[in-house]
Amino acid sequence: MRLELSPAAEADLQRIFEFNQRLSPAWAEKVEDRIWTRAASLIQTPAIGRPTDRPGVRRLSMPDIQYVLDYRAEADRIRMLRIYSTREIS
């Protein structure tokens, strides 16, 4: 199994990094590392995220950095769909 980013998730990751970079380069690195570490954990436990209202899409919370990851577990990959700050979603 492998991790794959959708184009939207790639853009989210870049946007998040750039935003956090302006605040603190160290924080930007920590957030990016934490997102990748948590996403990689989905390879072992793909059902850990909670289901969303979209079929097949789950949401993984990262409360220590206040981000969430929407993803879809498929037969051979975890597809990261979107990455949000918890302040961005309602």
Give a quick set of tags describing it.
single chain; 90 residues; alpha+beta; YaeB-like fold; five-stranded mixed beta sheet; 5 strands
What features would you describe in this structure?
The protein contains two helices and five strands, in the order βααββββ. It is of the alpha+beta class and 90 residues long. The chain has one domain: YaeB-like fold (2-Layer Sandwich). The chain has a five-stranded mixed beta sheet. Helix 1 (7-23) packs antiparallel against helix 2. The longest helix has 17 residues, at 7-23. It is globular.
Outline the fold blueprint:
Layout: E1 2-5, H1 7-23, H2 25-41, E2 50-51, E3 58-62, E4 67-73, E5 77-85
Parallel strand pairs: 1-5
Antiparallel strand pairs: 2-3, 3-4, 4-5
Helix pairs in contact: 1-2
- Please give the largest β-sheet: 5 strands, mixed
CATH superfamily: RelE-like
Which class best fits the helix and strand makeup? alpha+beta
Topology-level CATH name: YaeB-like fold
Mean pLDDT: 93
User: How many strand segments?
Assistant: 5
Q: Overall 3D geometry?
A: globular
Q: Distance between termini? A: 31 Å
Radius of gyration: 13 Å
Q: How does CATH name the architecture?
A: 2-Layer Sandwich
Separate helix tally: 2
Which percent range fits the helix content?
25-40%
Strand arrangement, major sheet = 1-5-4-3-2
Strand content: 25-35%
- The CATH C-level class name: Alpha Beta
Number of domains: 1
Q: What order do the helices and strands follow?
A: EHHEEEE
Model regions low in confidence, pLDDT < 50 over at least 5 residues: none
Counting copies of identical and different chains, the oligomeric state is: single chain
